[in-house]
Each structure stands twice: as C-alpha cells, then as structure tokens.
Amino acid sequence: MLSVNTFFTCFIYNPNSEYLTSKEQKIATIASRVLSFLSLTLLPRACKFFWGKKASSLLESPEAIKVLTERIQSIIKSSHPGVVISHEEEKAAQRIPCHQIIHGLFLGNSLAFLDTTCLSFEDADEWGRGGVIKQTLNPLNIERVITLCPLSGMLGDFSIPLGDSLQKDPSIIGASLKNHNIDWLNPGKSARDMAEGWLPLVHDCTFPNSAKASQESTGMTDDALITFQQTKIPVIKETDIKTWFEPVFQRLDEAVFYHKRTLIHCQAGVSRSASILAAYLINRFDVTHKEALSYLSSKRPCVRSKFVPQLREYEQALFAARAR
Q: CA-CA distance, 197 to 271, in Å (whole number)?
C-alpha cells in the first residue's frame, strides 16, 4: 500500500501511474474527474460570486472609481496615434468577431452577437451541404448586449435557416437571450451608417424606449427618416448635450467599473458601435475624439468611424457645456 503522500502525488500528476494498483488507479481517476468537474463549474461560480461582490463593494467608493477613471484616461491618451494599418491587417481584424476594449467591455460585429444568443442553427458543411447543426455557446460569458444596427442588416450574416427564422420572428433572439439571463438593449434599430444617421442614433441612444420609428426591426425607411428629421431632431437639439447617450453610457459604466461583461456591436463592428464607444470615452474620460478613435483602433484595427465630424462637434459642445 502506498503512503498517502505518494498516492496524492500520483493522483495529481498521473492517475494512471505504474506505482498505483489497478484499484488505486480507478479511485485516482474518479477523484481526478470529480476535482476537474468542481474546478470547471462550481469553483469559477463561487469565485465570481465572492470576488464579484468584493469588487463591486470596493468600486462603490468614489475614490476607487476616480483612480480607475484616471488610469484608463492615461492609457487612452498614451495610445499611439497615426499608426498605419495595412488593408490586409484591417480585413484580418474585421474577420475577428470582437475585441476587448477595456476589461469586461467588448466591441464586435454581428457574428459576435450571434455567439451570445445560445441558439442552435443549421450550417453547411465543407462541401456546401446542409444539415450540420451548430450551437452558439456564449464563449465570452457576455452578460449584456448593446445592439446598434437594425436586425435586418445582421440577418444576412446568419446561416440558413437561422436567418429565415429570424426574418419571420425576430423575437427568437430576445427570448433566447432572456432565457440565458443576458440583458439586451437595442437602441440602434433605425441606425444608418452614414452622416445623416448620426442624430437618429443620438436620439435612440438617449431615448431608447420612446421613438416609435425605432421599434422597426427592419430599420428606418426613407419616409420614416424624413418624418424623424422633422419631429425628433428638434427634440435632440433642445436636449442638454451632457445627457446624450446616457442610458447606453450607464450600461457601459457597469462593464468598465463593475465588470458586467458587455458586448457593444453593430453589423461589422467598425463604425456605428465604435462611434458610440468613442463618444463614451470622450464623455467619461475627458479625451479628444482623436484620442478615443486612436485607442479604439489600437484595440480593434478595423475601426473606421463614418461619424468623425459629428464626434468632433460632440466633443467641442460637451466640453464647452461643462465649462459653463
């Protein structure tokens, strides 16, 4: 009979060790599997519960939030501007579903969003034949999703028949996310990735539950855009700029300061979602729009905002309003 120390040494490093009898090998193998199960399931949950509560209580302190804010501000300002990214590097980055921007905060595309939905779908095999069932498993353990594009724009990225199913009933996504305790905010249902889409995006992120046009999962039509410009743009212009995007920004705060793992995305993760993240960095960390975009590009090289003039105007108006 082996000593206890020798047994546990073999158990930890090699349950099938020749120093163990067949009975001891079976016991060591079973114990190893039990320990593996506990370490992969219960232990992470326990750590998340206890350390999550501890981290949240620590960050309730205004001093701790101030220190973290200054640290992130320093990191953003120290990112190297003007780094030339080749077309190949940009395309390669765009093929990656998402990138981590700040701890707990991810910027990505519609495929990153699909990964969080926990939906099963049928995909083609390597010979183009259907029938391969795949399951999305939320590999990054995302707890909240912020969508900044119409669902119709994303469905083309989803494999058949998932895309057809979602076209007919987009609530499938919401139901699956809810069943898996993933919070979903979709203020970008009408967002267009062009200059005239800026104010609709501002409005829907500032009043995510108020705009009727924003409830269209297929996106805003040309007629709806004209109506929006006539009725909603005056509302935005009369709204204090310091409150722009605030419902979205508060959720991003929970990701940055309280580690609620959050994915913010649009169709490609290049312009719309990146622009809102840039506005967030400008607002919360007092950086310029150039510094914000440079930092985002350093994290996700394919970032190319189509709202740079609008971000510059937002930065200038926000800092002027705070100076008054």
A: 12
Q: In this predicted model, what pLDDT tens digit does every residue of 226-271 receive, in sequence order?
A: 666 666 677 787 889 999 999 999 999 999 998 899 999 999 999 9
Q: Which CATH architecture has domain 62-323?
A: Alpha-Beta Complex (3.90)
Residue carrying the six token digits 């073999």: 10
In the chain, where does the domain assigned CATH 3.90.190.10 lie? 62-323
Pairwise CA distance, residues 298 & 239, whole Å: 33
CA dihedral 152, 311, 106, 124 (to 10 degrees): 30
Instruction: Return all residues near 144 (Cβ < 8 A) that are at least 6 apart.
Output: 182, 183, 184, 185, 251, 254, 255, 260, 261, 262, 263
* Cα 307 from Cα 271, distance rounded (Å): 8
DSSP 47-108: HHHHHHHHHHHHHTSHHHHHHHHHHHHHHHHTS-TT----HHHHHHHHHSSEEEEETTEEEE
Would you state the structure tokens that stand for residue 193, as one six-digit string? Answer: 């990735």
- 161 three-class SS: coil
Encoded amino acid at 261, one letter: R
3-state secondary structure of 117: coil
* Lookup: tokens for 19: 């120093």
220 token code pair: 């805003």
- Residue owning tokens 């999703």: 145
The token duo for 116 is 């969080």
